[in-house]
Amino acid sequence: xxxxxxxxxxxxxxxxxxxxxxxxxxxxxxxxxxxxxxxxxxxxxxxxxxxxxxxxxxxxxxxxxxxxxxxxxxxxxxxxxxxxxxxxxxxxxxxxxxxxxxxxxxxxxxxxxxxxxxxxxxxxxxxxxxxxxxxxxxxxxxxxxxxxxxxxxxxxxxxxxxxx
Length: 164
Fold this sequence. Notes:
Blueprint: H1 2-26, H2 30-44, H3 67-70, H4 78-102, H5 106-138
C-alpha cells in the first residue's frame, strides 16, 4: 500500500514537472525568442499605417508626457522627489506628535513610527551622498588621445610569416 502511494505521488509530480521542463527547454532556443519578439512587436505596433502616408515600417504610439503616468507630475527629477518625501516626513513628525499628546494611544505609536521613518530616510540620503562622494573620489576621466594626423597613413598589419 505504501509503495503504491509513493508511485502515485511520483506520477503526479512527474505529470506536473516534466511538461514544464520540456516546454522551457523547447522555448529557450534563439529562434523562439525572435518569434516571440516579432509577435510582441506585432501586437504593439501593426505594420499598416493609420494615417494618410503609406510609409513602410512600424508605427508606435508614444505618450506626450510620460512623466504624468509616473504619478509625480511633469518633469520631476529624483532630487525633487527626495525633497518632497523629506518635507512630508518632517511635517509628519510634529503633526503626529501633537496627535500623540492630545489623543494618545495609537497616535503615540504613529509618532514613534514617523520619527523612525524620518531617521531611516535621512540615513538613506546620507548613505547615497557618501556613495556619490566615494564614486567622485575613485572615478577619473581618462585622457583622450590626440587624433591621428591626416597626413600620416598607417600600413596594414601583416600576418605572421608574410613578406613585405
